[in-house]
TrEMBL record, chain A:
Signal sequence, renumbered to the chain: 1-24
Organism field: Oceanibaculum pacificum
Protein name (record): ABC transporter substrate-binding protein
Swiss-Prot/TrEMBL GO biological process terms: peptide transport
Gene3D superfamilies: Dipeptide-binding Protein, Domain 1, Dipeptide-binding Protein, Domain 3, Periplasmic binding protein-like II
Record domain Solute-binding protein family: where: 68-437
Annotated Gene Ontology cellular component terms: ATP-binding cassette (ABC) transporter complex; outer membrane-bounded periplasmic space
Pfam families: SBP_bac_5
High-level lineage: Bacteria, Pseudomonadati, Pseudomonadota, Alphaproteobacteria, Rhodospirillales
Main subcellular location of this protein, as a coarse class: periplasm
Automatic annotation (TrEMBL), chain B:
Membrane-spanning residues: 12-31, 100-121, 133-158, 188-207, 233-252, 258-278, 290-314
Membrane-protein topology: Multi-pass membrane protein
Membership in a protein family: Belongs to the binding-protein-dependent transport system permease family.
GO process annotations (BP): transmembrane transport
Name of protein: ABC transporter permease
Cited Pfam families: BPD_transp_1, BPD_transp_1_N
Cell membrane as UniProt keyword: yes
Keywords: Cell membrane, Membrane, Transmembrane, Transmembrane helix, Transport
Location within or outside the cell: Cell membrane
GO cellular component terms attached to this protein's record: plasma membrane
Claim: Transmembrane helix is one of the keywords in the record: yes
UniProt superkingdom: Bacteria
Length: 522, 325
């Protein structure tokens, strides 16, 4: 038996030697969510956008905390109320050596909102642009619909493609690599859905030289398997480290962890509009008037939630308690808002004052496969509400059912998350709290139908104020109004975590993207 | 025989029709894919545009008719998520699953039948008992946990084999497969073993039960009395007779390994159709779900047909024409 075992071990050892050690010039990444396409304008989805950043590059780039940085444009300024002037970077070449010019910008803006069959198009970033005028090959004028201060933010979401390859190209042409010719730090080698995405360094990149000869992204959606792949040395970097494994990984000297506060807030939307809300009844099951119309009840719910306990216990410390829509450091965050204090006694008192001394019955809804530990958070909140006398039941479901029902306003109190793609406060304010208005495109995700004319006025003014300092003041004021009204109940900001093998280090990003450009070799 | 096959084909057609209707109604009942796919800050106008672009604004029966009219032209529609023809997607993932399934079935047959024979012939020996005890483990360990344990032992601690993914492929006789590269086999071994353990236990138990039953039958006694060698009795007379239930089960299990390797494919990040279908269900990518199910249903129909034909080869008493298919 012994010799046989040695023989088997020998064969295995020999086989494993075949998988050659990897040079430092290669980076292998295990991704929790897979990009669905290489076409940068097909589907506005975070993993797709992260991949596009490698290959294409934008006029305006976003730094680690989504601060705006010069990209293919070196500077921008408003030259009239409704005109932005962008100066393009000189001497930039696409992967094939052809020069990048203003004409490619014109083409990109035209293409971005018009990719056939797009399930979520980039039209939201080009909607404000009425016209693109080429002043000279390196100067572009964007004519907008009235004053539009957010144009640089919007443009930071659009990858620039080359007209030469993009004209008439379909999404499939980008996936096959035929049209995937950009000006980014990496070139596409192959895209095999479900298996791998391989990139190689673009030696002629205009910015910092790419650190890796070759980058391989592998989708490993199962969290335990992703951690195992890192521990076994199959990959050098993983994202979406499961919170339950963080303590264990911290003890492992072969692994280093990095994290970053994200732009994603986890919050409860609360039906503050309808006379009768579907999932609230009196304790005996009789229909009652919607208690959430009363700001005191909304405040009581907010005070009844122990945010610190959720962060410590449910999130294993990997989150930050929230009192508004974005964490400190982002544009438009108000310095005057504190995280609501946990005070169940005061909450009970407020409920009694509002006419609910014995509470009521409530079902709270949430997704169970969308945000970090989402179902557990809903359960924790339900227990905390029960403690102040609101009998709370929990109903969680897959996101495939949840979001459709949520948008049809089938719920009364629901857990949702919001990541600010533009990296500033107007994005959540406009989508979550502005009065729902289909025509104007305001409040598209306002599932509590919060509405306050003063808030709307302040926000509308902010959205047309080009002066940064003035706009920030207005955004802060709008946030303060909505939070005083408890238009929604913020819970915490997600913290994203990455883990790297010895020899690599990752600088976390607030937009939760995983990019080879942010990896350093130690 | 031809009547039998024709009847089968007719039934299959009806089956496919019913299946597609159920899937259409089912996915429709779950929700609207746009709610999941669209960027949350999209405006209502943008939402409506996306719904129209994917043809989801029509009433369900019209969507189904559109689907049928395209189906007749061999077009199963484009994936909502990947914007590529659904059938192409399914077929691009199929080879990875097939090689996994065949490797797993091969392992379970090559290991399972000899062990089952041994346990059947020497039921009271230590080896026989150990094999049976082992097969209980193979049955009852959850696939999910077992896969993670395999990764922990062989990839994380021993570092002998990669933790997942598919190895590089090579071309041989026009087939592009990772079976033809050494690194491909390294990647394949753990997921195949994970899939095979359950099937192996099944084969062991079936073989053992068959052997135990057959050994007591008159013709075996007669063969022995005739003075045939023990080897001939076992490998010709006993073995051939226990093959019928084995072939049935192996055939059906092959189908289920191909169709439902979802757990293994997810844990080992294997780019097969199991992973494709589970991802597609999560985002309600209906064209892919339908295309996948059509392919799988056709596969099961074919496997069943082959199994029935094999019956008549193995057991001359079975006449296909008499079978109620």
């Amino acid at each position: 038996m012994r010799p046989l075992m040695y023989a088997v071990a020998g064969v295995f050892a020999a086989v494993s030697l075949l998988s050659a050690p990897v040079s430092a010039a290669e980076l292998r990444v295990g991704l929790s969510t897979e990009p669905t396409s290489v076409d940068p304008h097909y589907h506005n989805l975070s993993p797709n956008n992260a991949l596009a950043t490698h290959i294409f590059g934008n006029l305006v780039e976003q730094g680690p905390v989504q601060e705006l940085l010069p990209g293919l444009a070196t500077s921008w300024k408003p030259v009239a109320d409704d005109v932005w002037e962008f100066k393009l970077r000189e001497g930039v070449k696409f992967h094939d050596g052809s020069p990048f010019t203003a004409d490619d910008v014109v083409f990109t803006i035209k293409r971005a909102g018009n990719v056939p069959d797009s399930p979520s198009s980039f039209a939201i970033y080009t909607a404000a642009i009425k016209d693109v005028k080429v002043v000279d090959p390196l100067t572009v004028h964007f004519v907008t619909d009235g004053p539009y201060p957010l144009l640089p933010n919007d443009l930071s979401g659009i990858a620039i493609v080359s007209r030469k390859y993009g004209e008439g190209a379909s999404t499939a042409d980008y996936n096959s690599g035929k049209a995937a010719i950009g000006a980014g730090p990496y070139k596409l080698v192959s895209f095999t859905p479900g298996q791998s995405i391989v990139l190689e360094a673009n030696k002629n990149y205009w910015g910092d030289k790419p650190k890796f000869e070759k980058v391989t992204f592998r989708p490993i959606t199962n969290p335990a398997a992703r951690v195992a792949a890192l521990l076994s040395g199959d990959v050098d970097l993983i994202d979406g480290v499961p919170t339950a494994d963080i303590a264990q990984l911290k003890k492992n000297s072969a692994v280093s962890l990095s994290d970053a506060v994200s732009n994603r807030i986890i919050y409860l939307h609360i039906d503050s509009d309808r006379e009768v809300t579907p999932h609230v009844t009196a304790k005996d099951g009789k229909e009652i008037k919607n208690p959430f119309k009363d700001v005191r009840v909304r405040k009581a719910i907010s005070m009844a939630i122990n945010r610190k306990a959720i962060v410590d216990r449910v999130m294993e410390g990997v989150a930050i308690p929230a009192g508004q829509l974005l964490p400190k450091g982002f544009f438009g965050v108000s310095p005057n808002i504190e995280v609501p204090k946990y005070d169940p006694e005061a909450a009970k008192k407020l409920l009694a004052e509002a006419g609910y001394p014995d509470g009521f019955k409530l079902t709270i809804h949430g997704p169970n496969d969308r945000y970090i530990n989402d179902a557990q958070i809903v359960q924790a909140v339900a227990q905390m509400l029960s403690r102040v006398g609101i009998d709370t039941a929990v109903d969680t479901m897959p996101r495939s059912t949840f979001f459709g029902r949520a948008s049809k306003l089938e719920f009364s109190l629901l857990l949702v998350g919001w990541g600010s793609g533009t990296g500033e406060a107007s994005s959540p304010l406009k989508s979550l709290l502005a009065t729902y208005d289909k025509e104007k495109g305001m409040g598209p995700s306002n599932r509590g139908r919060y509405s306050n004319p003063e808030f709307d006025k302040t926000l509308a003014q902010a959205l047309v104020t080009v002066d940064d300092a003035k706009r920030e003041k207005l955004l802060q004021k709008a946030t303060e109004i909505a939070m005083a009204d408890v238009g929604l109940i913020p819970l915490h900001y997600e913290v994203s975590t990455w883990a790297t093998r010895k020899g690599f280090e990752y600088t976390g990003r607030s937009d939760q993207a995983t990019q080879a450009m942010d990896v350093t070799i130690k | 025989m031809s009547v039998f096959i024709l009847r089968r084909l007719m039934q299959s057609l009806v089956l496919l029709c019913v299946m597609t209707i159920i899937v259409f109604a089912g996915v429709y009942a779950i929700g609207n894919p746009i709610d999941i796919l669209i960027s949350p800050d999209a405006t209502q106008a943008e939402y409506d545009r996306a719904v129209r672009a994917l043809g989801l604004d029509l009433p369900l029966w019209q969507q189904y008719l559109v689907f049928l009219s395209k189906l007749v032209q061999g077009d199963l529609g484009k994936s909502f998520v990947f914007n590529e023809p659904a059938l192409t997607l399914v077929f691009s993932r199929l080879p990875a699953t097939l090689e996994l399934a065949f490797a797993a079935m091969l392992l379970s047959i090559v290991i399972g039948i000899p062990l089952g024979l041994w346990a059947g012939l020497r039921p009271d020996s230590v080896a026989g008992r150990s094999i049976m005890a082992g097969s209980i483990f193979g049955f009852s360990l959850p696939n999910f946990w077992q896969g993670l344990m395999l990764i922990m032992v062989f990839s994380v601690f021993l570092q002998w084999l990669p933790a997942g993914g598919r190895g590089p492929t090579a071309n041989f006789l026009g087939i592009n497969s990772s079976l033809f590269t050494a690194e491909g086999w390294q990647h394949l071994l753990l997921p195949a073993l994970n899939l095979a353990l359950f099937k192996m236990s099944l084969v062991i138990r079936l073989t053992r039960a068959g052997v135990r039953e057959t050994l007591l039958l008159d013709y075996v006694k007669f063969a022995r009395a005739k003075g045939l060698s023990s080897r001939r009795v076992i490998f010709v007379h006993v073995f051939k007779n226990i093959l019928i239930p084995l072939v049935t089960v192996i055939g059906l299990e092959l189908g289920s390994v191909i169709a439902f390797a979802v757990v293994t494919e997810t844990i080992f990040a294997w780019p097969g159709i199991g992973k494709l279908i589970i991802d597609s269900i999560f985002v309600l990518d209906r064209p892919v779900i339908v295309a996948y199910l059509i392919v799988i249903v056709l596969m099961f129909i074919t496997i069943n047909l082959i199994v029935d034909i094999l019956y008549s080869v193995l057991d001359p008493r079975v006449r296909l024409a008499d079978m109620k298919s």
